[in-house]
Fold:
Amino acid sequence: MQFRNFKIGLFAALLSGLGQVGVSAAAADHAGKDGVLYLNQNWNDEERHSFYFTPQGSYLLPYEWFLALEQPDNDEPFISPKYIERFGYLADDEAYTSGNPDGLPIGFAREPADNGEDWVGMTCAACHTGEIRYRGRTIRIDGAPTLGDFTAFEKSLIQALGATLEQPEKFDRFAQAVLADPTEANKAVLQAQVSDQLAWLAQNDARSTPTHPYGYGRVDAFGIIMNEVFGRDLQQPGNVRVPDAPVSYPFLWTSPRLDWVQWNGSANNPFGRNVGEVLGVFGHVNLTGSLDQLGKSTARPRELFELEKLVGSLTSPKWPVLALGPIDSEKAARGRVLYSASRGNEPSCESCHSLPDADGLYPMTPAEENLFGVSFIKTEMTELAKIGTDPAMALNFATRNVNTGGLAPLLPAPFTGATEVPAPALLSILVGMAVSDGIANAYPPFSPAETAELIGYRLKAQGLPPYRPKNLLAYRARPLDGIWATAPYLHNGSVPNLYQLLLPPDERQQTFYVGSHEFDPETVGYRSKPGQRAFLFDASLPGNLNTGHYYGTDLTDDERRDLIEFMKTL
Structure:
């Protein structure tokens, strides 16, 4: 007991300057032109806008169409900020600057096409840029999960294109905006092109629509990627499955330094992960036809390389004291002790969610295991039965089998000639084809040093087996730096705030509203409030379970709040 009190006193002393530290950190934060507070995360304005608007190979609509498209039920622009924010995506508060002259939403980029016609597509920023609002102040968190609703956005886009075709006056305004010479003949061609793109998007939507809506801040990313690659690109419609295992968009800071990424720890090569992400958001890869075209994809290797380097420089957001109020140093010190303490047979928080040492270093993988002598932050994989959280995402991925179509004779051993292959293996092979083609044909070419960096140095030392996922029937735990800014919680976003996460599962809210950016600094999460832009989350639905993650749920209420106070400091 004396030692425990000594540790609390020591941490309290260390944390007693938190208010002052917070003020210093906040002084490095800055407000944008429209008053948005940008936290100091090691990006300047130019780097931030590069992340927001660098194209990655996603082809949604011709660019001029996107600018000219009207909302389905009126003549206001589809990309007007208020309309885009209905779907949880963020308007650029500094729009019409040199980095975004046409006022695109954050995470939408101009894609130069091979035929000379520019398109618009989505980028990683659409799903990994967060905002919280507190007492009239808007705070931007780069790399945090967005509250975007991918399905609702796509359905509204389809409705807008359909209304454009169905309503002559709407189509005439559209044609006048996008055609240099709006003759009747040219308008007829345009009408056919819009009809074709509408049909393509409707097919995409049919493959991507879940049984139950995801709502804000979630998507079944693997389900959609596999449907696009195995169903559309491989031209095997029988491979399509309902994407019914939504996950929250993970936060990006620290990710390039982790040994494994994805909620189920299924990927570690950053280029492969990013190419797969492109294929899920309106990119595509050629998997049929002539051999010389196999593996060619729309993914942009050079741009993805630069984006990953940007993410590598991103630091976690520090609690903005001036905006959200001070951290109670004594409560945080007691919470620090709780974070590292085991309780009975349960491991401590720190045993899975590691903390840095005095030099700022996390537990790392052995450098001698890596061909380049590089170490990575260790992540912990917890088996489904042990962690007890909703198993749908891990099970859907690990147990899915798919037809190989015409690629069967071209597959590497041991799958050569196989007509059916486990989905994780085939996805790795097919994305690997796109990765190899992207590296081989990048312009300007990648140097050997750049290629090593592009793949995240993920090559084992000579004589060691290649990197393989540790356990696909498990979920990954990672360091919790910046966790305060990443609600809702658990891999499927089924818990609204940190306070609820530390309650026993049978005491957690079974329903709550998602969609508001209003922040609650006491419970640390978004406020649950009904409204026009609110989605009622129901934890009883398949894929939505808020069970499991029992760690810390036996705390007293005071201890629970102490632990939350400490997590604000991470």
In short: The CA atoms of residues 111 and 119 lie 5 Å apart. The chain is about 35% helix and 10% strand.
